[in-house]
């Protein structure tokens, strides 16, 4: 049996065309995410204002030619803070998803290939991680290592691993029992080669679906931690931090900062959730 023959099962199960799977709503969500990402990357080109520098005499200015969205309580340009805040919001969530997805995929492949005692041991480890809520684990990490985006990002990545690994493990176990894997073993291919070349491509749709949905969850959790003062620290721009810093301005009749940042979070999370549902056929592969 040739390597080409072994690769056919993965090709047959890749699903239809990506655009057909996403549909009009999914494509619209992808466009929204692309625009947010592009705006974050091109922030220096879209605004000349420093997001961390303000002026007391420019506090709470209304939208105008100089400040398109107005200014906050410190006289900082709100558009600049939204654009640069998108960087930290997206980067933090991306790191969480990459670390959690990579760890979950590795655990799933190891559990599926070795089975029995190894699978049982990894299952107990995942059960132990399930005992710690995401935000609680992040707060514990902050208490030990201090506040900052890196600390909460790593803590959330660890907390997200069992949610993704639980789904990927079941899919990998199903693939492990199929005939094409047994044929690869008979050819003398090692477990690492079979797992990476054949099992991994077949569970890739579940990995992508879980990543898209977890991205939205990660943005919410990171925003919540920044709101509590445990994540991104001032004067760095961040959507969650902007919501927190704008809460006092709400009582003074200036809801712009919290409102703008909150809308950005909702739109981004909704877009990632739509893509995750479309990719997974409304069978989410992320947190459940």
Automatic annotation (TrEMBL):
Residues 86-276 form the ABC transmembrane type-1 domain. It holds the Pfam family BPD_transp_1. Coiled coil: none annotated. The chain crosses the membrane at residues 22-46, 90-114, 135-160, 212-232, 259-279. Keywords: Cell membrane, Membrane, Transmembrane, Transmembrane helix, Transport. It comes from the Bacteria. It is found in: Cell membrane. InterPro entries: BP-dependent_transpt_permease, MetI-like, MetI-like_sf. It is a multi-pass membrane protein. Belongs to the binding-protein-dependent transport system permease family. This is ABC transporter permease. The lineage of its organism: Bacteria, Bacillati, Actinomycetota, Actinomycetes, Streptosporangiales.
């Amino acid at each position: 049996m040739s390597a080409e023959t072994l690769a056919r099962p993965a090709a047959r199960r890749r699903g239809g065309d990506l655009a057909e799977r996403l549909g009009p709503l999914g494509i619209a969500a992808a466009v929204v995410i692309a625009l947010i990402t592009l705006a974050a990357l091109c922030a220096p080109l879209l605004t000349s204002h420093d997001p961390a520098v303000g002026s007391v005499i420019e506090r709470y200015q209304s939208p105008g030619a100089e400040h398109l969205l107005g200014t906050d309580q410190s006289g900082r340009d709100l558009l600049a803070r939204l654009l640069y805040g998108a960087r930290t919001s997206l980067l933090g969530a991306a790191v969480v998803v990459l670390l959690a997805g990579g760890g979950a995929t590795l655990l799933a492949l190891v559990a599926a290939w070795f089975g029995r005692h190894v699978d049982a041991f990894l299952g107990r480890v995942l059960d132990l991680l399930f005992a710690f809520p995401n935000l609680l684990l992040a707060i514990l990490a902050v208490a030990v290592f201090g506040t900052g985006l890196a600390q909460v990002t790593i803590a959330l990545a660890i907390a997200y691993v069992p949610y993704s690994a639980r789904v990927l493990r079941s899919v990998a176990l199903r693939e492990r029992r199929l005939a094409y894997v047994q044929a690869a073993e008979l050819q003398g291919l090692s477990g690492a080669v079979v797992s990476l070349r054949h099992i991994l491509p077949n569970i890739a749709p579940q990995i992508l679906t879980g990543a898209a949905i977890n991205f939205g969850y990660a943005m919410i959790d990171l925003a919540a931690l920044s709101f509590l003062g445990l994540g991104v620290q001032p004067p760095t721009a961040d959507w969650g931090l902007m919501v927190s810093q704008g809460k006092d301005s709400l009582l003074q009749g200036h809801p712009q900062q919290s409102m703008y940042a909150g809308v950005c979070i909702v739109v981004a999370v909704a877009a990632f959730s739509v893509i995750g549902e479309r990719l997974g056929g409304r069978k989410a592969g992320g947190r459940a």
